[in-house]
Amino acid sequence: MYDTPKAVVTLAAPGGRVDNAVMDRTGELAALILRHGPEEGLAGTVMRRLQLIRANGPTMPIPSVYEASLCLIAQGSKRVSLAGRSVTYDPYSYLLVSLDLPLVGHILEASPDAPYLCAKIDIDHGALAELIMAEGTAAPRADLPALAVYPSDPDLVDAACRLVALLDQPASIPVLAPLVEREILYRLLTGPHGPSLRQMAVVDSRISQVGRAIAKIRGEFSEQLRVDEIAAAAGMSASSLHEHFKSVTRMTPLEYQKQLRLQEARRLMLAQGMSAGNAGFAVGYDSPSQFSREYHRLFGAPPRRDIERLQASPAYAGPL
């Protein structure tokens, strides 16, 4: 049940100090997000890898699949949970997701006067690989976390500000946006999360192999997948897949598939008004009782009661 994570880790400015340079840059980023994302929710932009997020109040824990991305909060704070473990981040820390993961996001601090504001920048794998090749640094072989929060730095936030500011200059976006995105990747590569990013771009690295396993599961999550099929897609033995998949994602491949199924079923019931029986069948469950049991275990209530609770809550504003 996501409402009671086992551990919460909060990281603020380095050494617990208020970093004035970061504060100045995040203030600028907040103003840009307010200008270009004036409505609540997640707003896409003409730059396909940039999305802006706004919430005028705290939200309930909301499940969704996060793709490999950088999330920079300009105002407010948020907790993200994966398999019972949580990280909390704010304007003095950034979230980096190295793999597609079924996470639960919970906005903690937000109000109409001081809304939650965030810029989400998806990772360009091609540009990342080019940078790593140019840099010439080998990727580490050890398994690294696919979800982590680290203290922010003014250069990274400054680059994000320049990326969002390009929305004011649409004619410049085709030329300048790729350059700024490349700078952001460089800042990440030279920061504490660099080793995980290097693993993402190396074909035979563990995190890359786990990524191929995840792509297989996401593409066929409603099917009856066997572990050896997933292992073959990843280029690993079944035993090696199990070991490294769990080390990176904190769950087994089949647990990952189950979470995708249940999150998609929840989305179908909320967004399309599907019955629990039809939603369970649509995501691959043959037994309604098994679907209801596993749904209850994950979300803390049977399907119908959970959906009624979400729909009645003023804090529910859709996936953010």
UniProtKB/TrEMBL annotation:
<dbReference type="InterPro" id="IPR009594">
    <property type="entry name" value="Tscrpt_reg_HTH_AraC_N"/>
</dbReference>
<dbReference type="InterPro" id="IPR009057">
    <property type="entry name" value="Homeodomain-like_sf"/>
</dbReference>
<protein>
    <submittedName>
        <fullName>Transcriptional regulator</fullName>
    </submittedName>
</protein>
<dbReference type="InterPro" id="IPR018060">
    <property type="entry name" value="HTH_AraC"/>
</dbReference>
<keyword id="KW-0805">Transcription regulation</keyword>
<dbReference type="Pfam" id="PF12833">
    <property type="entry name" value="HTH_18"/>
</dbReference>
<keyword id="KW-0804">Transcription</keyword>
<dbReference type="Pfam" id="PF06719">
    <property type="entry name" value="AraC_N"/>
</dbReference>
<feature type="domain" description="HTH araC/xylS-type">
    <location>
        <begin position="211"/>
        <end position="309"/>
    </location>
</feature>
